[in-house]
Write a structure and sequence with these properties.
Length: about 325
């Protein structure tokens, strides 16, 4: 780890004013510290924003606002989130370990980087870590890699469970730019596909801070499920994951939300399947048809074709679990 200057701003204005172009913000540090140790992140300045950002959760008429500095555990057990947005709690509790969830922040969760092994092994090519060096995973060990939305320059997947739920629930990311001005970014536009610039994970403006996450009020609180399939039961990243939410009237689906992790460079919404489900009767046959529709355009790599059937089954199961919730 290279030496760096450590600063602890008292508020967001001081944090934004103090940051240099080679500085990095740190909150829980559950990802950045790993990157520092491996010399993947080499900031000359680290700004500790644990006192600078909001750690409050506010339920309002239009939805809920979750401060960027709210710890993941705090969000997962918050009564308002459990009652109104249980999918968020389920996704958080599916990720990492209790110790990591106690440290990790909501804002930091959105910014965590891929766990692709080519990204973390500095002896191997990786366009995300070293642009122009190539993608070792594309023709290499790509069992964990993307099956949709990837490019020849990068097949890495987004690692967050929380972000899959936030994508399904049409969340908004509120950020403060370098001048302190706030603006909102729709969650679907916050993370990006790799294309030819995979080193850019998201659309957060240079020097900006995440202020809070807003989830709009919805009618999905009674029927949600988060299904995560991984190599071991805990502390492992998803092979595939599915966030499912249903609005049910009698036995008919009024509206549906489906999103996945472990399949793409960003949390992936299955919009065609959602549209198919709307207005249909909620039963196993319809769920199977929706799952088949979701996976029909998937193009797996050499070593992850198993994800197609795995994902199809996971979508069916998640919808069944959401119905029975």
């Amino acid at each position: 780890m290279r030496p760096f200057e450590y600063i602890k701003p008292k508020d967001s204005k001081e944090a934004l004013r103090s940051k240099t172009p080679t500085g990095a913000y740190i909150a829980g540090g559950t990802n950045l510290v790993d990157l520092l140790k491996k010399n993947i992140a080499v900031p000359h300045q680290v700004l500790d924003v644990t006192q600078a950002l909001s750690d409050s959760i506010a339920l309002k008429r239009g939805g809920i606002e979750i401060g960027a500095m709210v710890r993941n555990t705090t969000a997962a057990i918050n009564p308002a989130i459990l009652e109104q947005f249980p999918l968020v709690s389920k996704a958080i509790l599916a990720g990492a370990s209790p110790q990591i969830r106690n440290m990790a922040s909501i804002g930091g969760n959105l910014l965590q980087r891929t766990r692709c092994p080519y990204f973390y092994d500095t002896s191997l090519p990786c366009n995300k870590r070293a642009p122009g060096s190539g993608c070792g995973a594309y023709d290499g060990e790509n069992r964990m890699s993307a099956v949709i939305g990837y490019s020849a320059d990068c097949v890495a997947v987004h690692p967050s469970d929380l972000c899959v739920a936030l994508a399904a629930l049409d969340a908004t990311v509120v950020v403060q730019d370098a001048k302190g001005k706030k603006k909102s970014i729709l969650f679907k536009d916050f993370h990006r596909l790799p294309e030819s610039t995979p080193q850019q994970d998201n659309t957060l403006p240079e020097g900006a801070l995440i202020s809070e996450v807003h989830i709009p009020k919805n009618a999905f609180h009674k029927h949600t499920a988060y299904l995560k399939i991984r190599d071991r039961d805990s502390y492992a990243f998803a092979l595939v994951s599915v966030a499912a939410a249903l609005q049910i009237d009698g036995n008919r689906i009024v509206a549906a939300r489906l999103a996945s992790g472990g399949v793409a460079h960003k949390p992936w919404r299955w919009l065609a399947a959602e549209q198919f489900l709307a207005g249909k009767e909620a039963n196993a046959t319809v769920f199977a048809e929706a799952a088949a529709l979701a996976v029909q355009d998937i193009q797996p790599l050499a070593r992850n074709a198993f994800k197609v059937d795995m994902l199809k089954g996971a979508i069916e199961t998640a919808l069944q679990e959401a119905l029975q919730a």
